[in-house]
Amino acid sequence: MKIAFLSTFYPYRGGIAQFNGALYRALEKEHELKAFNFSLQYPKAFFPGKTQYVDEKDEVEKIPTERVLNAMNPATYLTTVKKIKSFNPDVLIIGYWMPYMAPSLGYVAGKMQKHCKVISIVHNAVPHEKGMMDRSLSNYFFKRNKHCIALSEAVKKDIVDSYPKVNVKVLHHPTYNHFGELIERQEALKFLKLDSKVKYLLFFGLIRDYKGLDSLLETMPLIDKDIHLIIAGEVYGDFQKYQEIIDKHQLNDRVHLHLKYIPDSEVKYYFSIAEAVVLPYKSATQSGIIAVAKHFGIP
Fold first, then answer.
1. How large is the C-alpha radius of gyration of the chain?
2. Residue 148's beta-bridge partner residues?
3. CB–CB of 3/93 below 8 Å?
4. CA-CA distances (angstroms) from residue 17 to 20, 68, 107, 203?
5. pLDDT, tens digit, for every residue of 279-292?
6. High-pLDDT (> 70) share of the chain, %
7. Ordered strands of the 167-170 beta sheet
8. Which of 127, 147, 152, 208 lies 20 to 30 A from 95 at CA?
């Protein structure tokens, strides 16, 4: 079967690109596959982090793609359709995760319906952080889709409640396996320069308002002082409100800040010393962090 796959891939970083890379490698074992990528996802002014791209030193799956779709340039929407049509696929898979991507991905989905089966993998149907145009943008995307795969029952419900004509199947988020294996605790502690005499909880991943880090920090004074917290991930927004909680409860000695994007090659060090991964999300449908924790066998 010939499959075209349109979404975000290397050199873009983050959980969606990692998911797509893993799916690409699985599908290419049995199918003829071509990946179509973004030439531009977000203008710098729209992106809340430091960079959209992986570090060349990072150990990542370098998926071969054709970078053609510019989310901000409608002219590339038509170009992308033409490129996909020229590949003549039996199926087009589209990876969708937020309303900002609805115009570009929705346009391609609508135009390709006449030429092949279109299946959209939906990570989030409703965004965690709300915007004024969310409903209109989501309508544009989902009304141009007939078949969707949701990664959780919650996402399926979000889709069918608003778009009952869309055929939705649930395939739960797979376990990641590209981060390596657990290593000896002492080796991980040495790498992270942490004390071996205490136990560590891990808050891992991008730091965003909906993930509830503030609630977690407020509970830290209530638990044993020999249990510390590692916060590992890049901050999207301002960390000041979290720092104020840390200062208020005098937690600077118990909260260890690794406020950066964690490259794939370093993920194993954090999970190798964690007693548990803590996800105090205020809003969630599924989480790639759970998939990572399952891979390492960490509760």
1. 20
2. 120, 168
3. yes
4. 5, 16, 21, 21
5. 998 876 777 888 89
6. 98
7. 65-70, 32-40, 2-6, 91-96, 117-122, 147-150, 167-170
8. 208
Closest CA to 59 of 180, 181, 191, 190: 180
pLDDT in tens, 33-79: 999 999 999 887 777 777 788 877 776 778 999 999 999 999 999 99
Kindly write down the DSSP assignment for every residue of 144-169, as one continuous string: T-SEEEESSHHHHHHHHHH-TTSEEE
What is the number of helices (H) and of strands (E) in the chain? Answer: 10, 11
For the record, the structure tokens of 36 come out as 């179509």
DSSP letters for 41-77: SS-GGG--SS-SB--TTS------EEEEEETT-HHHH
**290 three-class SS:** helix
Gap between the Cα atoms of 150 and 168, Å rounded: 7
pLDDT band at 236 (very low <50, low <70, confident <90, very high): confident
- Residue type for 139, please? N
User: Which letter does DSSP use for residue 114 in this model?
Assistant: T
Residue 136 has pLDDT above 90, yes or no: yes
Spatial separation of the C-alpha atoms in residues 108 and 76, rounded to whole Å:
10
Helix axis angle, 102-112 to 74-87, nearest 10°: 40
Q: How confident is the model at residue 27 (pLDDT cuts 50, 70, 90)?
A: very high
Tokens for 255?
Answer: 């909260």
Domains of the chain: 2-170 (3.40.50.11930), 185-296 (3.40.50.2000)
**For residue 68, what are its two tokens?**
């053609």
Task: Decide: helix, strand or coil at residue 241.
Answer: helix
Distance CA 256, CA 235 (A): 14
Distance of CA 77 to the CA centre of its chain: 23
pTM (2 decimals)? 0.85
The average confidence (pLDDT) of the chain is 92
Count the alpha carbons within 13 Å of 162 in the hemisphere toward its beta carbon: 18
Query: Would you state the structure tokens that stand for residue 298, as one six-digit string?
Result: 């960490």
